[in-house]
Amino acid sequence: MPESKLQNGHKSYTRVWCDGCYDMVHFGHANSLRQAKALGDRLIVGVHTDEEITKHKGPPVFTEEERYKMVRGIKWVDEVVEGAPYVTTLETLDKYDCDFCVHGDDITMTADGIDTYQIVKDAGRYREVQRTAGVSTTDLVGRMLLLTRNHFRQGQYEYHVAKEHSSTMGQDSSARSPWTGCSQFLPTTQKIIQFSDGKPPKPGDRIIYVAGAFDLFHVGHLDFLEKAWEKGDYLIVGLHTDPVVNRYKGSNYPIMNLHERVLSVLACKYVSEVVIGAPYSVTKDLMEHFKVDIVVHGETPVMNDEDGEDPFKYPKYLGKFVTVDSGNDMTTEKIVDRIIRNRLEFEARNIKKEKKELDMLKKMELKENGY
Ligand code: CTP
Ligand code: C5P
Hints:
single chain, 371 residues, alpha/beta, Rossmann fold, 3 domains, five-stranded parallel sheet, 15 helices, 14% strand, binds cytidine-5'-triphosphate, binds cytidine-5'-monophosphate
């Protein structure tokens, strides 16, 4: 047993290993890391290179540098291992001093259809957590490719969504993968509580307020929140509602609905609190209610409110408004552009992934039935 784990001859803490692509990091990834962290003391996350992902799954949407940074930004992550191998071996667990590996209850396969966790499963060094239904990179890419707003109306139009989605992906709607097939995400107060710190500001804390859409939470948002967080002690993020975001972004924005955006932002290590559906203008009431010391915005353009007024008029009048340069030019629109530009490649990747999962499901069913 490695030295670091021994204290008076007894094992002192548990190091947990997770690995994955973490492409277009979403709250499903964050929720798996949250559950994994709860199984031990320190969480070490291995992230695959672009080359490995392209080989086994198809091209990632984000570069490895962007993906490493995004995983480091998740509040349950203690260490990131860059360029972790696609197949998890006992050597990898030992090299990083990890007791066991944790993965969601879906199947990950190599390009040759082999379970990437078979070795650690056989060695009894594998634990499973519940995959978050209704969110996946595949689904988000699908939303961008379809350019629909159906995810705003989940529940009411589920049948149409499934039909539209399956016909575009060239699949029969009765044969959807239970893992990445487009299912509905059901936000609950429990999930919000699990993601939230639940800590009020301490007396004397300098309170920072930022507001925005934070749609498809990305590295630009992360760099911005880090800069904003450096301005004080307690960071509150006001999230605009879907109709408000749609008013100023147009088209089918936001890609993620308010509940989904809340969880993505809450998973960020710089965020203390989220306002679920903040007013577009930063009002006197809001500033007083949250005892805001400073309002921060990035260098992206700001549209006037419906009454033609600057939404930051009040904090500016108080001399409590600052802008920061995130140093990152990523935007939600750029992500959508990346997807649209590589539309055929991503469509093919989505179809391939779901087909691989359906084949695996069939094999598992046959095995269960004794064939
Ligand atoms: N995960 C999860 N819930 C989701 C999506 C992913 O719990 N909705 C978990 C996976 O089970 C895995 C980890 O997140 O343990 C990393 O997953 P990753 O390798 O990035 O790939 P995918 O499972 O393919 O994620 P996605 O379908 O979103 O691409
Ligand atoms: O565009 P959105 O409303 O999601 O932006 C939220 C906040 O993040 C804004 O303050 C915006 O200026 C900032 N941001 C940034 N750098 C980026 C993207 C967003 O500073 N690349």
